[in-house]
Amino acid sequence: MRKTPMIIAASSIALLGLAVPAQADNHEVKLSVLHGVPDLTVDVYVNGDLTLDDFEPGDLAGPLDLPAGTYSVAITAADAADASAPVLGPIDLPLEAGNNYTAVAHLKADGTPTASLFTNDISEIAAGEGRLTVRHVAAAPAVDVLAGGSAVITNLANPDEAKLDLAAGTISAAVAATGTTEPVLGPADVVVSEGVSTIVYAWGSLEGDNLALASQTIEGLGSAPHGVPTGQVEVVERGANMGLLAGLGALMILGLGATARAVTIRK
């Protein structure tokens, strides 16, 4: 049964609320969940309870408000009777109070499934600036990112992320195969909005010709915010070339600040 993102988010909040970890405290965290494994509809169990039913590739649920603690997550084939035979997991997600996370089920560079827990940066952004984070969670090779024909990021691989606070505006980027300077994608325009953290995910498989782009925004991070930071999610389908271009092309902006901040959890 296909569920809309709104129904998925609502059911996640309700069921995760019933799946509070035994040692949870009264402080909350925010958690979004991205399904980035192509061609595999799944059920998601949290602490043994069915939480997301028929979760499809590209679905992005959240942000969910949860008590801090450690959650055990298992991913099974769709319509499994229980979580006893997971296709991924069970994995433990340690969520600390006051943080904002995105958990991503995705493919490693070699095409095997894995999961990564990313801590989203919700620190204050200076007036006139926005934050851009790009996460490579696709079964695709490493890339170099070009600015002015020169590589500013080299050998960026799954599951690395890179981020930078930038002046609000539109910036151009291009991507080349690692070790080369001839663009194979781009240039492409990337919009950076004031006081907003934009997170871009390149997911899917290059070999499977199903690369796609998902984006997530966290608002209210400006130097004089008018409210509590919130998260919004949007999933945008692309063809193989457009997905890689849009997802990884943005990385040139992040060049000198590229870091791998993902906590990768493997079972």
Q: What is the CA-CA span between the terminal residues?
A: 28 Å
Helix/strand-derived class? mainly beta
Strand arrangement within the widest β-sheet reads 17-16-15-9-12-18
Low-pLDDT windows of residues = 1-26, 232-267
Work out the count of structural domains.
2
User: Average pLDDT value?
Assistant: 75
Query: Order of helices and strands, N to C?
Result: HEEEEEEEEEEEEEEEEEHEE
What is the molecular shape?
A: globular
Strand percentage: over 45%
- Summarize the biggest pleated sheet: 6 strands, mixed
Task: Please give a structural write-up.
- This protein is mainly beta and 267 residues long.
- The chain has 2 domains: 5-120, Immunoglobulin-like; 129-260, no CATH class.
- The chain has 2 helices and 19 strands.
- It has helices spanning 5-18, 240-249; strands spanning 28-36, 42-46, 49-55, 60-67, 69-77, 88-95, 100-107, 113-120, 129-139, 143-147, 150-156, 161-167, 169-177, 185-192, 197-205, 212-219, 230-236, 258-259, 263-265.
- The strands form 4 sheets. Strands 17-16-15-9-12-18 form a 6-stranded mixed β-sheet, covered by helices on one side. A 5-stranded mixed β-sheet has the order 4-1-7-8-19. It has a 4-stranded antiparallel β-sheet with strand order 3-2-5-6.
- It is globular, with a radius of gyration of 18 Å.
